[in-house]
Amino acid sequence: MGKVTVTEHPLIQHKLTLIRDVDTASKDFRDLLTEITMLMGYELTRDFPLQDKQIETPMGPMIGKEIAGKKPVIVPVLRAGLGMVDGLLRLIPGARVGHIGLYRDPETLLPVEYYCKLPKDIEDRDIIIVDPMLATGGSLAAAVDFVKQRGAKSVRALCLLGAPEGIETFRAAHPDVDLYLSCIDEKLDDNAYIVPGLGDAGDRIFGTK
Ligand code: PRP
Ligand code: URA
């Protein structure tokens, strides 16, 4: 069974309060999302395997460590997931980036796919799906379906906020996927928005409200 990790570091909680605030402007929202993603990325990458690397320091030879294996693939769920890409790329500059375009139909609340572009060899790489909001869980579950259908074997997901009911739905659909969140919020409202949440993540990142 995949694990659910809630990264409750004080810096993350402090920045979460700022990002949730209705008066936080888009530029600050984007900066905070990048900063929180980097802090969460520290936890997400904790189990990455290492291998030895022979180097020379100015004082002589030593055997250092480096991350082993192929570079992971970061897969943002468009649009809002784009706001988490830079933070992870700063930690893992060699990572590949795939894209999955999904929007939630306002009537049915079901995810609708409109774009998918992934590296060819995803079966050999760790996949990190990023999307700030896990509300009903439908979008994240669909994104994981896409990468699995295209051969992905190792998948983890990074979200800022999750609603309890969405987390349960997602875990039932993909019990093998490790899920990282910075907070589990209270509930969904009648329009399936997370409460207290932060509103519409895509609109807040891109100023489209
Ligand atoms: C938001 C969010 C998730 C989805 C979460 O995207 O970024 O992808 O809703 O909802 P769910 O868990 O109920 O599926 P949205 O559909 O608003 O699209 P956007 O990012 O293009 O604005
Ligand atoms: N999508 C968002 O952007 N916010 C929510 O609270 C739910 C879905």
TrEMBL record:
Catalytic activity: UMP + diphosphate = 5-phospho-alpha-D-ribose 1-diphosphate + uracil
Pathway: Pyrimidine metabolism; UMP biosynthesis via salvage pathway; UMP from uracil: step 1/1
Keywords of this entry: Allosteric enzyme, Glycosyltransferase, GTP-binding, Magnesium, Nucleotide-binding, Transferase
Chain ranges of the Phosphoribosyltransferase domain: 6-208
Binding site for uracil: 194, 199-201
GO biological process: UMP salvage; uracil salvage
Domain of life: Bacteria
Annotated positions binding 5-phospho-alpha-D-ribose 1-diphosphate: 79, 104, 131-139, 200
Enzyme Commission code: 2.4.2.9
Cofactor requirement: Mg(2+)
Tagged with keyword Chaperone: no
Function per UniProt: Catalyzes the conversion of uracil and 5-phospho-alpha-D-ribose 1-diphosphate (PRPP) to UMP and diphosphate.
Similarity comment text for this entry: Belongs to the UPRTase family.
Name the record gives this protein: Uracil phosphoribosyltransferase
Organism listed in the record: Aedoeadaptatus ivorii
